[in-house]
Amino acid sequence: MARDIVIWPHKVLTTSTQPVTDFGPALETLLQEMAEAMAEAKGIGIAANQVGIPLRVAIVGREDGTQFEIVNPQLLSKEGSVKLEEGCLSVPDVWEKCPRVERVKVRYQDKTAQWHELEAEGRLAHVLQHEIDHLDGHVFVDHLSSLKRTLILDRMKKLQKSLARRKEEPAEGKGTKRS
């Protein structure tokens, strides 16, 4: 079952995540729930803290539609600079040009604890940076001007209130009657 996606500025999104030390069935279940949440939201990447779990694990989508997990990732090198339009499942319906680097080298573990190194550029480098930012307690809006960040923050707080009200409403046919 897919987990709900947490909306920024929830505290779990602004706090660094903890390293994964247990590579057992619980990690496999978490990855499955994250993949389902990402698919439901039509995303190309998702970090565990976006579903409320403060662990250093994310799923990264490739341009060909496949995906892979990164556990305990480390950015080893960054080259170049580019501004790319970026969005986020935790900041829904917001797209802004965000400064990023063009090429990255990343070291990470897979779900079986095996270490890998990957050099990436283009969209894959972009998604890797975005997800590793999440794991470090940052959201893409942190890279924007304070004015844009404040405007987006106001929208997200309103969205959080709206979602909280919907959860409090009784289910159809239960509780109070509606006209």
UniProtKB/TrEMBL annotation:
Cofactor note (record): Binds 1 Fe(2+) ion.
HAMAP family attached to this UniProt entry: Pep_deformylase
Phylogenetic lineage: Bacteria, Pseudomonadati, Myxococcota, Myxococcia, Myxococcales
Cited function: Removes the formyl group from the N-terminal Met of newly synthesized proteins. Requires at least a dipeptide for an efficient rate of reaction. N-terminal L-methionine is a prerequisite for activity but the enzyme has broad specificity at other positions.
The family this protein is said to belong to: Belongs to the polypeptide deformylase family.
Name the UniProt record assigns to this protein: Peptide deformylase
Keyword terms of this UniProt record: Hydrolase, Iron, Metal-binding, Protein biosynthesis
EC identifiers of the protein: 3.5.1.88
Cofactor(s) needed for function: Fe(2+)
GO molecular function: metal ion binding; peptide deformylase activity
Reactions accelerated catalytically: N-terminal N-formyl-L-methionyl-[peptide] + H2O = N-terminal L-methionyl-[peptide] + formate
Pfam families: Pep_deformylase
A single GO BP: translation
Tagged with keyword Signal: no
Highest taxon of source: Bacteria
Active-site positions on this chain: E131
Species per Swiss-Prot/TrEMBL record: Corallococcus aberystwythensis
Binding site for Fe cation: C88, H130, H134
Hydrolase found in the keyword field: yes
CDD domains per the UniProt record, alphabetical: Pep_deformylase
